[in-house]
Amino acid sequence: MVAHAEAHLDHHEEHPPVPHYSSRISPSILGMYLFIGSEIMLFGAFFTAYFFVRVVNGTPWPTPPFHLPVYLAFINTCILVTSSFTMHWALTSVKRNNPFGLRAGLLLTFLMGLTFLITQVAEYLRIGFNTGDGAFPTIFFCLTGLHGCHVFVGLTILLFMTIRAFRGHFDAAHHHGVEIGGIYWHFVDLMWILVFLTVYIL
């Protein structure tokens, strides 16, 4: 009896029991979804401010004599949307044990995200107005700047993911890091589409 108990204890020390999840979603992915939910509320606060400035107060958008570089923002939007497809390619590749597709997809996603951020900084330097010029510039920089901060965080995550991919840390059985990073990046892309349509188009 004692020998059986000791053998059972040694078995568990060598191989810990498989954790039991109360749902089909792993805790790490669920945690990312909850985090994204909090980020949506943060963006919602700034969109509410935009609504009050433009609709309730009737502030001209953009306020003369200022102009928004819509064409440049559209090109940037195309770049970021394309990066979602390369991110999806990377995730699909790792699920199929295709290391080349994983590395190429992550690297292309990182480079396009970096291009987007550099272009946004260049836009800020040439746009011709600042936060002290009224309510319109303040909301513009708040919304686009908040999104830019999220792109920077996403690029940091992508950088570590890409380094790990080139070191062979991911495969079809272990790719949670790629999946979680991909969820965040798709969220960043979706939020930019909303910002672009709200700030530059409507």
Walkthrough of the structure:
The chain is mainly alpha-helical and 202 residues long. The chain has one domain (28-201): Four Helix Bundle (Hemerythrin (Met), subunit A) (Up-down Bundle), CATH 1.20.120.80. The chain is 77% helix and 0% strand. The protein contains 6 helices and no strands. It has helices at 2-14, 27-56, 70-95, 99-126, 135-166, 176-201. The longest helix is centred in the last third of the chain and has 32 residues, at 135-166. 23% of the residues are buried. The mean pLDDT is 87.
Summarize the structure.
The chain has 202 residues and is mainly α. The protein is built from six helices and no strands.
Give the N-to-C terminal Cα separation.
Answer: 76 Å
Assign the CATH class: Mainly Alpha
Look at the structure and give the mean pLDDT: 87
Rg from alpha-carbon coordinates? 22 Å
Q: Which range best describes the helical content: under 10%, 10-25%, 25-40%, 40-55%, 55-70% or over 70%? A: over 70%
Descriptive keywords:
single chain, 202 residues, mainly alpha, Four Helix Bundle (Hemerythrin (Met), subunit A), 0% strand
Blueprint (SSEs and pairs):
Elements: H1 2-14, H2 27-56, H3 70-95, H4 99-126, H5 135-166, H6 176-201
Helix pairs in contact: 2-5, 2-6, 3-4, 3-6, 4-5, 5-6
